[in-house]
Amino acid sequence: MIEVQNLTKRYGAVPAVDNISFTAHPGQVTGFLGPNGAGKTTTMRMLTGYMPPTSGRALVAGYDVFEQSLEVRRRVGYLPENVPLYRDMTALGYLMYIGEIRGIPNRRDKAYEVLEQVKLADRANSRIRTLSKGMRQRVGLAQALLHDPEVLILDEPTIGLDPLQVLELRELVRELGKNHTVLFSTHILSEAEQVCDSVVIIHRGTIVAQGSPSELRSTLERGGRVFVRTNAPAETALPRLQQLAQVAQVEAGLDGVIITPADPNADPRPAIARAVLENGWDLIELRPLAVNLEEIFLELTRAPEAAAEAEPTPESEVVA
Amino acid sequence: MSAIFAVFKRELALYFRSPIAYAVAFAMLLFLGILFNGNLAQSVAFNVSVAQQGGGGVTASDLNLAPALITFLMFLIGPLLTMRLLAEEAREGTIEVLMTLPMNEAQFIIGKFLAVWSYYTVLLLLTVIYHLILTLVGVPDAGVAFGAYLGAWLYGGAVLAICMIWSAVTEDQIVAAFLSAATVLVLYLAEVAAVSLTGSPTLANAAGFVRELGLQAHFGATLANGIIRAEDIAYFVLMMIGALFITTRIVETRRWRA
User: Fold this and answer.
1) In terms of residue numbers, what domain contains A234?
2) Can you give the CATH number for the domain in which A227 is found?
3) Chain A to chain B Cβ contacts (< 8 Å)
4) pLDDT surpasses 50 at A196
5) What's the whole-number average pLDDT of chain A?
6) Looking at beta carbons, which residues of chain B come within 8 Å of A52?
7) In chain B, whose CA is at the least distance from the CA of A153?
8) Which residues of A lie closer than 8 Å to B, measured between beta carbons?
9) What ipTM did this prediction achieve?
10) For chain B, what is the mean pLDDT?
């Protein structure tokens, strides 16, 4: 269980993470999604006790990350973004070293067990420098699993892997999610959609959306932009559609028209469909612009600029 | 406690696999060997002439030759042995994993320090061979030798702890080494600075203070000659504790700002 409440981290005056709150539940993989530089790593570093928050608090496995850092560290397995390892050590030697610092009693058995789990037992005595990127990633993951943590925090674990390794790793993360609390960061949306039970989308240090992948999609289908394709030429279709009360803005898209609804909580599609038919055009396609997380994500992260652009346009008010 | 021991074991093992540690040992032993050989030949010749006049024995300067030379060489040995210790962990990012384990900075740094001090102790013990050679040519004063070795051991510990500060400050090993060497040289030369201060009309009072701050004031005239004073031992021990404390705080703040 990870509970984050109003967590903020500032570097000087610049907020890297600004007042975020979310919860990651046990038995679930929570995806932490955002473009590079959104504040994912900073948040994870605060949750693992590596870095103190500027304000707000976070409970990991029931302990405060700042007040009870050592208790948190005992219960968290962490795989940092670039998987730092000692290249001169063997995979087994590295795990034994971490196990000794953690004070794990039967660490040799435990090290073999986790190497087995990440399918690396045959390379236990290879020096880490000789391992491929994917194997190193798995050594890092083995390190995070060594002490049977309640909570696993994985910072972009699939980055730099080949497609097959990515699939294997996602499978492993999904498997681990069944009996751990897993927080998994990524900037690849299809990955979050495949692996995660719930998704937190972070952009410029603030949470722009959270929920299950399907919830997020339905939210956007309701209030997001709509793509409509008719047989009418754009010059005639654009002004007619603009006149609709449900429509705030229209723009020409590829082979069709992209419509921004006036009320983000109402679905403008029925009105658009009627308008198309009333004008005597053929309706070829009518769908939410965002159909997968990739597009949902682009929709969400373009929102601030879109809102700023939409405000000064007076037409919508005239029509309304 | 097990965390300190785990860090200590790994680091010490690393010294015995590190080319730079062997290079330091080789250079130091070669340099000492040549000087010792020259010094011994000279001293034997001198002693023969003294013996012909009724005197005899080995002089005190022979006894502390190795430890005294090592304290002089510490401005090279210290930086070379410590530059990697913390700078590399920061550069490689491995410190991020370590600092999310149930271990605090102090345990981590004490483990590292004990490892480098142990390696230094091994180097120092290798030079005991020179003392054994002296026993073949005369009856050296064991008390002087013991004092000098104890002094060199504590002196080395203090220098290594001071050098660790710079390894914590920068991720660049070369920068760490240069800053360490400069710091150790300043502390080594404090006596020289004190002498020039004595001549100054306004700062003459500060001369004694500056002298006492330096490393040699607590070794050259006392421990090196077998005079074991509590204040000298306290000076070296406090230098170690102080430097390790500063190192710990630096690692902490770097992490907090990272």
Assistant:
1) 218-319
2) 3.30.70.100
3) 62
4) yes
5) 85
6) 256
7) B100
8) 11, 45, 48-52, 70, 73-74, 76, 78, 80, 82, 84-86, 88, 97-98, 100-103, 143
9) 0.86
10) 88
